[in-house]
Design a protein that fits this description.
single chain, Spore Coat Polysaccharide Biosynthesis Protein SpsA, Chain A, eight-stranded mixed beta sheet, two-stranded antiparallel sheet, 10 strands, about 25% strand
């Protein structure tokens, strides 16, 4: 898979924003880090990288101002896997890159590296010392039926359908030079995590 002439991938960028944000106490997507809410930082990056950006959420009205495709879950209450299914179903391209709405430090270089590995695979997923990073991964539309089959078994973890498709596991050492501190995979789930990130940004 190659970049198009205007340097954007013929890929859909999917942002999953269906969590309840209970630990944070407010909608994580709209937490401001620097000058923008996290959701705008992600959508700005995705619009530079991909031909299409869409959001899957149960709070549709909150995101309409972004003027992007905003969709509610086809089958509600099925966790991140249900959200991924909706995003893949609604996307206009064969491949999609999916992230969570609370990832403020996405790295274009890492994303480009993963997209370059798509040929011959249904999933391209990084693996760090914390394990698979399924919400920083590339998926093809061939994943739709396998996802549907595991959802019917009441499974809602994204990795539950991996055994049913062709998976390219990208080990951390492969992109360590691009993102040596692994900031790409930072999620903001609690006020404490937000404070740590703000302190780190102030130092750097």
């Amino acid at each position: 898979m190659n970049l198009t002439h205007n340097q954007r991938w013929e890929i859909s960028g999917i942002i999953l924003s269906g969590g309840k944000s209970k630990r944070m106490g407010e909608d994580k997507a709209f937490i401001r880090i620097g000058e923008k809410p996290i959701i705008e930082t992600i959508t700005d990056l995705f619009q530079k990288l991909f031909k299409e950006t869409l959001i899957v959420t149960d709070r549709k009205d909150s995101y309409l101002y972004l003027r992007l495709g905003v969709y509610e879950d086809i089958s509600p209450d099925q966790g991140a896997l249900g959200g991924l299914y909706t995003g893949l179903f609604r996307s206009n391209f064969f491949h999609s890159f999916a992230v969570a709405c609370d990832m403020p430090s996405l790295n274009a270089g890492v994303i480009n590296y993963l997209c370059q590995e798509a040929e011959g695979y249904d999933v391209v997923v990084p693996r760090t010392e914390d394990g698979f990073q399924p919400l920083h991964a590339l998926y093809s539309k061939r994943c739709l039926e396998p996802i549907q089959s595991v959802l019917m078994e009441k499974k809602t973890r994204i990795v539950d359908f991996y055994p049913l498709v062709r998976v390219r596991v990208v080990e951390a050492r492969e992109f360590l030079s691009i993102d040596p501190e692994m900031q790409s995979f930072v999620n903001i789930n609690t006020p404490e995590e937000l404070n740590r990130l703000e302190k780190r940004n102030a130092i750097t």
